[in-house]
Every structure is written in C-alpha cells, then in structure tokens.
Specification:
The complex is a heterodimer of chains A (502) and B (520). Chain A is built from 21 helices and 2 strands. With 502 residues, chain A is mainly α. Chain A has one domain (13-499). In chain A, helix 4 (84-100) runs antiparallel to helix 12 (258-275) and helix 6 runs antiparallel to helix 7. The longest helix of chain A has 32 residues, at 162-193. The relative contact order of chain A is 0.10. Chain B has 520 residues and is mainly α. Chain B has one domain (2-498). Helix content of chain B is 72%, strand content 3%. Classes of the chains: A mainly alpha (502), B mainly alpha (520).
Chain lengths: 502, 520
C-alpha cells in the first residue's frame, strides 16, 4: 500500500503563483458582476481591469524584491520558476497591458468593449502569458501559450469587422499549427531526455554529449518553427500583416509587444543552452532567419500603402532585430533584448494608439483603407500637435537619437559588436537606414504635403478622450525622456538577467 | 555661468523654440531675431572668456548620462570648435534677420532655432554618443526646411539628403561602438568620452577598419566626391535659408569631425589613407569646378563651387601638419562666410525674379549697383583673392599639403584657377553687358533687411582676410597639440614620417654646394 504523500505547504511556495492568480481572480470577478447585473458601462470594466493589473504589478514588484535578496525561487512542485527573466518579462507584459486597457475608452462606440467578456478574456490572456514566462516546464509553457492564444483570437474576432474574422481565423489556424509544432518538439526532447524541463534537458544532453544530434536537430527545427510563428519570423510571418490589419489598431499595437516578449523569453530559455553548445547548424539557421526577417520585412514595409500594414511589417522587422540577441546569447545581448523591448513598447504602442485615435467608423471615398497614407497628408496644418507626436514616434522607431528606440538599437548593436558578430552589426545598422525610409514617408505625408480633402483635423482625433490622450502622452513622454531612464533601467535589467544565469 | 555656458548655448535656443509656439504669428520674426541675438551675444561672450593661451579643452562640463555603458554628457571647446560655434550662432542670427517673406514663418523660425541647438551641440560635444545624438538630430530640422519650403522636387531632395546621411552615420555608429569596445577591452570600463579615446593606441589593422567606418559617416556629410550627389539636389531645392545654413555650418560638421575624430584617433590610418583621400579631394576640386562651369542655374554654380572648396579643406586636413590643418579649419570658417553670403545673394535675385537661370539675367550691375558690388566682393573672396578670408585658408591648406606632395598640390592649385574662371564667367553673364531682358529693367536694389544679412558678412570676409591672427592664433595652438598627439601615438614608419614632431626644432638645412675653384 502506498504511504500517503506528505508535502508541507511551505515547500510548495504558493506565493510564486500570486502574480498569475490576480488577473484570474479579476477575470472571474468581472464575469460574476456581469451575471449579477448585466448591461453595465464599459468604463467600470476598464477601471476594474486596471485595478487588477496594478495589483498584479505590485505583486511582481514584490517578487522582484524577493529575487533581489534570495535569488531564483522555485514553487509548486518546482514547476514555477521565478527568476530574473520571468520577473522582467512580467513587468513588460503587465506594464504594456496597463497602457493598453484604457484605450478601450474611445469616444466612438465600438462593439467589442460593450461585452464584459472582452475584459475577462483579456485578463485570462495576461495570466496565460505570465505562466508562459514563469516556468521552464514545457508543458506549462504550452498551457500558458494556448490559454493566452485562444483568448487573443477571440479578442481579435470581437472587433466585428469582416477583416477581423478573417484575421482571427487566420491567426487561429496558424497558431494551431504552431502549437502542433511546439508539442512535437517537446515530445522529441522528452523522448531523448525523459524530461520536460528545459534545464534538465540541457543537463542530460550535455551529459551524453549530444549523442543523438539528429533527433536534437529535428526537435530544434520544430521549436524554431513554433517560435517562428509566434514571433512572426520569416518565413512564418505570413499571418502577421493580415492579422494586424484586421485587428483594431490598439489590439494590433498590443499584439506587436506582449505576445512577443513572452515568446522571446521562452525562446531565450530554450535556445540559450543550444546556442552555447556549439551546434553550428543552429547558429547558421538563426543567423539566416534573423537577417532575412530584418531585411525582407523592411522591403515589404517600403511598398505598403496603408500605415497600419507598414507598422505591421515594421514590427516584424523589429522582432527580427531583437531575435539577434538570442543568436548572440551573451548577457549583454539578453539585457539588450529587454531594454529594446521596453522602449519599443512605449513607442510602438504610442504610434498604434495614434492610429486608434483616428479610427473612423465609415471610410470616406478618397481612402482605400482605414489608415492610408493619404489620410495623413497635410496633418501638420490641421492637427499640429497630433502630427508632431506621430512624427516623434516615427523618428523614434527609425532610431533617430535621442528618442527611446535609439538607445535600444545602440545597446543591441553594441552587443553584436562585443559578441564578435561584426557583419551582423553592420547589417543591423544598414537595416535601420532602410527602415528610415518608410518611417520618413509618413513624416513626409504629414509635414510636407497638402491635405487631400480640406478637413479641420477632426478626423485625427475622432476617438480622442482623456484616457486615450493620457496614454499617448505617457508614451510620448517615455519616448522623449528615455535618455534619463536608460541608466537605471539598464542596471536593473542587467542585474536581473545576469543573476538568472543568462 | 561660465561653468555651464556651453549647455546654455546649446539649450537656450531649443527652449526658446518650444516657447516660440506660444508667440503670435506676426511677432514671430522679432522673437526669432531677439533669441538669436542673445544666442550670438552668448557666443561672443564665450569668445571673450576663451583663454587663447590654452591649447586643450575649456569650459568643460561633465554629467553622467548612462554611466553603466560609459555614456557621459561631456562638453568642451578648444580653439578648433569655438569659432565654428560662434559662426553657427552668427549665421542663425543673420539667417533669421534676413529671412524673406516665407509662408508659415513661425514654424520656420522654430525649426531654425532647433537647428541652432543641434549645431552648437555637435561642435561642443566631447562624448561620441552625445556627438552622434546632435549629429543625427541636425538632420530633422534640415529635412523639414527642405521638404516644407523647398522647390518642386523638394520631397525627393529632402529624403535623399536624410537617408544618405543617416545611412552613413549608422556605419559610423558601428565604428563608435567598436571603439568603445576596444576601450573596454583595454581598460575594463566602457567609455565613449573622446578624451579617453585619445589615450588609446590601437593596432594599425584596427585603425584602418575603424577609419573606414568613420569615413563613411563624415565623407557623406562633407560631401566627398563619390558621395556628393545628394548635395546639388538639396541646394537646388532648398529655400535660401536652408542652403545658407547647410553650406555655412552643416557641411562643416563632416570636416570638423575628421579633425576631431579621424586624425587623433587613428593617426596611422590617416597617414596610410592620406594619398587616396588627397586624390579624392583633388578629383572633388577639379571635377566639381568643371561641373560648376557647365551649370546654367546660378545657385548650382554656387553649390558646386561650395563642394569644390570643401575639397581644399579635406586636402588641408589630410596634410597632417600644423599649417595644413590650421589652414583647413580657417578655410571652414572662410568658406562658411563666403558660401553663406553667396547663397544669400542668390536668394536676393531669386526673390525678385523667381528664376535662377543665368541666361535670364545680364547687365544687373546697371540696375542693382549695390547688389553687384557685394556680389563682386564675395565672388572675389570665393576665388581666393588675397586680403579676403578664403585666401588665408586656401594658402595655408595648400602650403601644408605642399610638404607632402608637390604634384597633387599643383593639381589642386589648377582647380582653384578653374574656380576663378567659372565664377568670373558667371559674374560676367549675370552682371555685365547691357540689360537685355525687359523684366530686369526695373528691379529694386538690395533692401535693408537683405543688407542686414550681407554687410556683416562682407565685414568679416575682409577683416579676417586682412588680419586673421585673432582667429588663427587659437586655432594654431589647438592644432599643434593635436598634431603632437598624433605624432606621439603613431606607430608606423609611414605615419612617423608624414606627421611632424613639433618638439624637435625644425631645421632646414640647405646644403652648401661648394664650387671648387680651380686652383691653379
């Protein structure tokens, strides 16, 4: 007869679950409120979500304090892994979500925000992302990935346009394929090593000297494809521009940041030991993927006629740029990834919010799409402040100093230089120059052309409310005054990344 | 105040520009003149407080910006940069003061004030990243000036200008990151401070690569011969004020950066690349002079002549000795004054006739005598007539390079003669002869506002031509210390032989040829 298993509650370390449980509780509460009394205004749900996100943020800050003193903590049968990467990634996830959720307070009425389910799903999704980054157990990663992805598909579809359904279905199909690849990869590694935990996989593989290199490579190929889909790396990027176009502009901005940081962290955990194991094949493939993703998506972005699609391709290019950090694999590169992504989230969320603010309910005749370049022609004459802010975001995305993203690019290219990737550093620099062209194109339209049809500038601020303006103001401030925050940010990130052994 | 005068010089116009948004449209011009006058007064005060007997950096400021990565907000000026800063403030004042009627004059003035901030920043920065920040930031106001107030091809011209320079500077940025990494490897600390880098002696192969990386950034900005194609477009499309600032100050960033970065950081590479660069510079001098001769548009003549003179500046810089470098820095100032004035003058006639084609003019000396006089003086200064400002710089640059190569100097001299030909030919076509075109019969002569911009430039052009010492003295002092630094750092035989050692007394020995008389 089996003896009863005795596990003390303390060894479970349930506090490691706290940051993930807060949004889950919040989501359930929202659902309960809806059952008790339906038809409440969206502002209630926005504020409730914000409240739970703030609590979540505090819980993560608390976890980071524990990390500073005690180092990495394990919890819940050693499934949860709260290290520096997990904490940093959660900061980005929750911080960006806090910037995103007030964007629901638009002036015009949009379908999706009238459902409380939107906010519940949103909070479930955040919990999913948090689980994904706070473990090195491939099964829990998979569960977190699926929870968040399924919620995200629904959120996209709730925008309730034809293109949104198309986007959601496309994303769903591609996501399902990626999930399949992921589970196949996990299966192969389980078969090889008898473990689903990344650090144990690494130990076993290192101990037997990568004896089954053929199988390892097959598994790596599956994982590469799975991450390729999630991070929209070429050639797995095809869904991205359509999904961005179909989703609402705010959601597109959100998608370009939060799901990707979660995927980057998992990729960092997984590829870290492989990159340093001297498998040349992986280095070569990653190198090619990084360079092609950066360059080709830049080329596509050049020829877009819609600003939102342009920004979609540009965020693919930024993802490729950042993927270089995983190839380089030094502490500096991994810190650069986080620095870059934090700065990028301010700038990119800001520019997508500017599009969101100008979202019209009905298309005027001269516009072929929601955010065609024509729409922004002569914006400096009709809405000077909005044009200046949009121009600021474009300059920052292009990497013009001293705006936010310049510092990210600087540190990232520097990490390539230090890591011995000279050619890659040059390619990254030249790609920034190519990218300059399409960001400049929007600036040219805004500042140097005459308006297509005379308007009083209302079109650029149709959706503007105090909430949207505040978010854009925060993003703009973050973009302009980034240079003050770089040093503390860099020291914080480097300490966290270094102390988690990456 | 003296401790922070450089920061004040940099950020005062920027803050004033932000406040400028609140000023009413019709009063904006007065506001702009007032702000730039204060800025110029501050710059003159800087000159007054500047200690001529010191060769190193003065008015240093230091503030850690990203200490974890070795980026510090470090400022300072020496004899090389102080006069370019004054020149920049001078041109901002003249430019805003003589600004002709422009649409959206408010935005124009705000943009010019921002531009003044970046210009002061580039020449005062002693940290590579701070330098880079201002260097890149200077593109944005210029992009807007060309793109919003330019001619019919303005968008093409402004984008070409931006992307060309942006691409070059990104390569330079990679070079800077390498330089910082080498410093990190040598000392264990990250640093982008220029004065730290000066102390670093790199192996020759590293120097060659880094020199090339920096060269891309600087050469595009100058612009040197194969990279010059953006400049005629930019000048051709830019409004008068844009061309003036571009020619007078922005192009000098490239040549200044050669003296500040390339020479003292990579002395061996500079000596190694001296001849190829000199040949490029001479191609630049002669080829663009010939192209200028073929132009029909008077602004293009001035634009190409401006590139041609930048060739002499490069030649002087890469003479690698005190005469050449001092001369090239003095020529930067001289060229700034003269080219700026010529662009202002072209703007005067363009405002009256809305054409820049020389065939449309002729006999203007009869109609506009004062205009013709000022144009004549500036043109003479441009071709390097003795007792004008350009003569001093050109003479010293060529004198410097003569010590390195006689033949190339002679070729460059030919270029200057071609320069005289096309300038005189252009002047003849536009100003002499009879007034053939009816439209030119009743042109008003130069007005007060235009005189405000031009008279000070004429005074400076002649004053510094007759008596260059107050400017040349401090320049010389700082250049001597740079040349000595280069000599001390150089490792190869080639560099040792090309860069003179100033501590050794220079003795010219003329061997006595003894004609032995036949003793009978």
């Amino acid at each position: 007869m089996l003896s009863p298993i005795n596990i003390s509650m303390e060894s479970l370390n349930l506090m490691t679950l706290a940051p993930m449980l807060i949004p889950v509780v919040g989501a359930l509460l929202i659902l309960v409120i809806d059952i008790v009394k339906g038809g409440l205004h969206k502002s209630l749900y926005v504020v409730l979500s914000l409240l739970f996100l703030v609590m979540d943020f505090v819980a993560i800050a608390n976890a980071s304090g524990i990390f500073m003193t005690n180092g990495t903590t394990l919890g819940v049968f050693d499934v949860m892994l709260i290290d520096g990467l997990a904490i940093l990634a959660q900061f980005v996830i929750v911080g960006a979500s806090m910037l995103f959720i007030p964007l629901a307070m638009t002036h015009k009425r949009f379908h999706e925000f009238s459902y409380p389910e939107f906010f519940a799903l949103f909070l479930f999704m955040i919990a999913g992302f948090q689980f994904m980054v706070a473990t090195d157990n491939l099964i829990l990663v998979f569960v977190g990935l699926e929870t968040s992805s399924l919620a995200l598909y629904t959120l996209i579809a709730m925008h309730n346009r034809d293109k949104s359904f198309e986007a959601a279905v496309k994303y769903f199909t591609m996501g399902a394929l990626a999930a399949g690849f992921f589970s196949f990869g996990a299966m192969i590694f389980y078969a090889l090593t008898g473990s689903v935990e990344i650090n144990k996989i690494a130990l076993v593989l290192a101990a037997n000297g990568y004896a089954d290199i053929g199988f390892v490579l097959v598994g790596v190929a599956f994982f590469l494809a799975a991450f390729g889909f999630k991070l929209s790396l070429i050639p797995f990027h095809t869904w991205a521009p359509d999904v961005y176009e179909g989703a609402s502009a705010s959601m597109a901005g959100y998608m370009s940041i939060v799901p990707k940081i979660a995927a980057f962290v998992v990729a960092m955990r997984f590829f870290e030991f492989l990159v340093h194991s001297g498998i040349v094949w992986l280095d070569v493939v990653l190198y090619i993927v990084v360079v092609v993703t950066m360059t080709a998506s830049n080329m596509w972005a050049l020829v877009q006629t819609d600003v939102k699609r342009m920004l979609a391709y540009s965020s693919i290019s930024h993802a490729g740029f950042v993927m270089a950090a995983i190839l380089i694999g030094t502490t500096q590169a991994n810190s650069a990834l986080f620095l870059y992504w934090i700065l990028f989230s301010f700038t990119n969320l800001g520019s997508f919010s500017m599009l969101w603010m100008s979202r019209q309910k009905h298309l005027p005749d001269h516009q072929s799409s929601d955010h065609s370049y024509d729409k922004f022609a002569g914006m400096i004459k009709t809405a000077p402040v909005a044009a200046l802010i949009m121009g600021l975001f474009m300059l920052s995305l292009a990497g013009v100093p001293p705006f936010a993203l310049f510092w990210g690019k600087l540190y990232m290219i520097s990490s390539a230089v230090t890591g011995g990737y000279t050619i890659l550093a040059l390619i990254m620099a030249l790609n920034s120059a190519i990218a300059g062209y399409y960001y400049l194109k929007l600036i040219v339209y805004m500042f140097m052309k005459e308006p297509v049809v005379a308007n009083g500038g209302e079109v650029y601020v149709t959706n503007a409310t105090l909430a949207l303006k505040t978010i854009i103001g925060i993003a703009a401030m973050g973009t302009i005054f980034a240079f003050v925050a770089i040093n503390p940010l860099l020291e914080f990130i480097t300490a966290f990344v270094y102390n988690s052994g990456y | 105040m003296l401790d922070h005068i450089l920061s004040i010089l940099i950020f005062f116009p920027a803050i004033a520009a932000v406040f400028g948004f609140a000023v009413q449209k019709d009063s904006m011009r007065a506001y702009g003149v007032a702000v730039s006058a204060i800025e110029f007064a501050l710059a003159l005060f800087l000159w007054y407080a500047f200690d001529n007997s010191v060769s190193g950096m003065q008015f240093m400021e230091h503030l850690p910006l990203v200490p974890a990565f070795g980026i510090n907000y470090t400022l300072g000026v020496d004899g090389i940069s102080v006069f370019i800063i004054i020149l920049a403030a001078f041109f901002t004042l003249l430019g805003i003061g003589s600004l002709t009627d422009t649409p959206n004059v408010k935005y124009m003035i705000i943009t010019l004030l921002f531009l003044q901030m970046t210009m002061a920043g580039v020449f005062a920065a002693l940290d590579a990243i701070v330098f880079y920040v201002f260097w890149e930031l200077s593109l944005v106001p210029m992009l807007y000036i060309i793109g919003a107030w330019g001619g019919p091809l303005r968008i093409y011209a402004s984008i070409k200008f931006f992307l060309y320079t942006f691409a070059g500077s990104l390569v330079m940025l990679v070079g800077m990151l390498f330089m910082a990494y080498f410093y990190y490897q040598a000392t264990g600390y990250w640093s982008f401070a220029l004065l730290d880098w000066y102390r670093l002696v790199l192996p020759e192969t590293f120097q060659l690569w880094l020199f090339v990386a920096f060269f891309f950034g600087f050469a595009i900005k100058v612009p040197m011969f194969p990279f010059h194609t953006w400049l005629p477009y930019a000048h051709g499309q830019a409004p008068t004020i844009g061309s003036v600032i571009l020619a007078a100050i922005l192009l000098k960033m490239g040549t200044y950066a050669f003296v500040r970065f390339s020479l003292p950081l990579f002395p061996d590479a500079a000596a190694y690349f001296m001849m190829p660069i000199a040949i490029l510079a001479i191609i630049m001098v002669i080829y663009t002079a010939m192209v200028a001769y073929a132009q029909k548009d008077i602004k293009q003549v001035v634009a190409y002549s401006s590139i041609s003179h930048m060739g002499i500046i490069i030649l002087g810089t890469f003479a690698l000795n005190v005469e050449g470098i001092s001369g090239s820095i003095f020529l930067m100032l001289g060229h700034g004054v003269v080219a700026g004035a010529l662009f202002l003058l072209v703007g005067v006639i363009y405002d009256r006739r809305h054409t820049k084609l020389m065939s449309e003019f002729g006999g203007l000396a009869h109609v506009m005598p004062r205009y013709a006089t000022i144009f004549g003086i500036m043109m003479m200064a441009s071709v390097g007539l003795p007792l004008t400002i350009n003569f001093v710089g050109e003479f010293l640059s060529l004198l410097g390079f003569y010590q390195q190569s006689h033949i190339l100097t002679l070729l460059a001299g030919t270029g200057i003669i071609v320069g005289a030909i096309y300038m005189l030919a252009a002047y003849k076509k536009a100003f002499f002869g009879d007034v053939t075109n009816e439209k030119n019969k009743n042109l008003p002569d130069i007005n007060k506002r235009e005189l405000f911009g031009l008279i000070p430039l004429v005074i400076v052009a002649i004053w510094l031509g007759v008596y260059p010492k107050p400017v040349l003295g401090p320049i010389n002092k700082s250049v001597e210390s740079i040349v000595q630094l280069m000599h001390n750092k150089s490792q190869t035989e080639l560099a040792k032989s090309r860069i003179p050692d100033l501590t050794k007394e220079k003795v010219v020995v003329i061997k006595k040829t003894v004609i032995e008389e036949e003793v009978h």
